[in-house]
Amino acid sequence: MIARTIEQQLNNRLFKGKAILIFGPRQSGKSTVVETMLTDGGHDYLFMSGDEADTLELLSRTTAPKLKAIFGAYKIVFIDEAQRIPDIGLTLKIITDRIKDVQVIATGSSAFELMGKVNESLTGRKYEFMLYPLSFEEMVARHGLQEEKRLLQHRMIYGYYPEIVSKQGQEKELLKLLANSYLYKDLLMLEQIKKPVLLSKLLKALALQIGSEVNYNELAQMVGADKGTVEKYIDLLEKAFVLFTVPALNRNVRNEIKKGKKIYFYDCGIRNAVINNFKALDVRTDTGALWENFVFAERKKMMDYSQTTVTQYFWRTTQQQEIDLVEETENGLAAFEIKWNPKSKARFSATFIQNYEDVSTATITPQNIADYLLPVI
User: Fold this and answer.
1) CA atoms of 366 and 339, how far apart (whole Å)
2) Which residues contact 110 (CB under 8 A, 6 or more apart)?
3) What is the spatial distance between Cα 83 and Cα 108, in angstroms, rounded to a whole number?
4) Domain boundaries along the sequence of the chain
5) 269-292 per-position pLDDT tens digit
6) How far apart are CA 153 and CA 283, in angstroms?
7) Rounded to the nearest 5 degrees, what angle is found at the Cα of 241, between the Cα atoms of 236 and 243?
8) Residue 273: C-alpha distances to residues 87, 183, 213, 289, 340 (Å)
9) pTM (2 decimals)?
10) Three-state DSSP class for 165?
11) What CATH class has 7-130?
């Protein structure tokens, strides 16, 4: 069992008078981390799944007396795949407000469903957590920095999903199954997804453009759809934790790109499965882009798990001056160049440095990866 960073944070939130919500993609380990935390803590709990018909019936349009009868003597109720339950936000509110001696924990793999259902009902009544696929930090804690750095190329090809990491030799087969089931299972149940073939085409087009600025009009022409449909599908893919968008930073320089976006995948293995490319890095043409995707995703995980509020940007001017990653935290701006080859020279635009004062700069390579993908203790 690989220890997850958020486990202790979850444990510290038990019985604080609020619902605990855990979001993240399917198969990222949400159920496992909750069950491990509760079992290790010696807690008895009632498990209910939104995938089961009887749970849907019991928890839909319910009342406090009915819920008390369902829970019995249990003081912890764990609801998995809660986004499938109608009126789940109201149900969680009833538990939190009316059954105060019961701690409810709910997980969901669809932000577009669960977040929308609980945000209004649970204002001020919830703790929210994200659980990503395994992280560089978690794997270093598992078997040490030296070993994880040796496995870096493997991670860039096959990713960090728990099942993929734990079943060596089966990566390709399992990734293809995982990509098909987890990418589409929730999305295709939505009324908004009327063209699954179009979704597949768009996903492949996006996978081929990681690290590059995407143009929605060009994407629309490429996949045979209108721009509005492309924007909607990308938004849904982001809310399903398949990918995330990074906007352009534009504040001080007249010729900065204003509305550009880059798109990255939460997991490199899923990205490679989408385009069916598991070739070794030394024979690929997209190694630099894969490394960039890896760094963006791992920085995102690290900041989130350390509860640091951060916004990621890229920076580019119409004259093609650019910086790979700019992060904004409460401490200000930090600019990074991301280089797969440690010998590559990183040049930070003088235009950027002059217009964004007090910004720190650094180059992230495989050699110094620990300095930027492990939290400062």
Assistant:
1) 8
2) 83, 186, 239, 240
3) 6
4) 7-130, 146-373
5) 999 999 999 999 999 999 999 999
6) 12
7) 80
8) 35, 11, 21, 15, 21
9) 0.92
10) helix
11) alpha beta
